[in-house]
Amino acid sequence: MRKYTKIYLDMDGVISNFMKRYEELYHEFPDRHTNSKEFGENFENFIKTGNFATLDLMPDATVLLHYLRGVRIPIEMLTYTGSKRDQKEVARQKQIWLDKHRIDYPANFVPGKSLKKTFADEESIIIDDTDSVIRDWRKVGGMAIHHTDAHTTIAILGTLLV
Hints:
By secondary structure, the chain is of the alpha/beta class. It has six helices and five strands. It has helices at residues 18-26, 37-48, 61-69, 84-100, 131-140, 150-160, and strands at 6-9, 75-80, 107-110, 124-128, 143-146. Strands 3-2-1-4-5 form a five-stranded parallel beta sheet, with helices on both faces. Strand 2 (75-80), helix 4 (84-100) and strand 3 form a beta-alpha-beta unit. The radius of gyration is 15 Å and the shape is globular. The model has no long low-confidence stretch (mean pLDDT 94).
């Protein structure tokens, strides 16, 4: 049985509801065209209007956060900020969001999803909703939980942290 020494927790799609806000503003899901000019313009506007600071909690985020408070392993946030150009502003907005929700885990802001794997090792767990992050994390030897809902993630954590 592995001994885990750190849990990394993603924000968007795990505890903050990026998709809901994006769909409300642009009437479509961002994953349909993330490499398009239209998405780039929408994402730039999303940032300029401060949306990352005011996202809703995911519907079951409080359940997951409550569970994690009882875990005896250090927890850190590990979240994607978009490009290097946007990193500073998105990180600022995401930190405001974390502060507003009284989530005081140390926050790591990376300007590329593929950079999350640089935090992975055999003693780390990531909770993330993005397939590519899960694959990358596992390739490096870390444990990755593909988050779909709090209860499933908690059940998996329960088997790993015994």
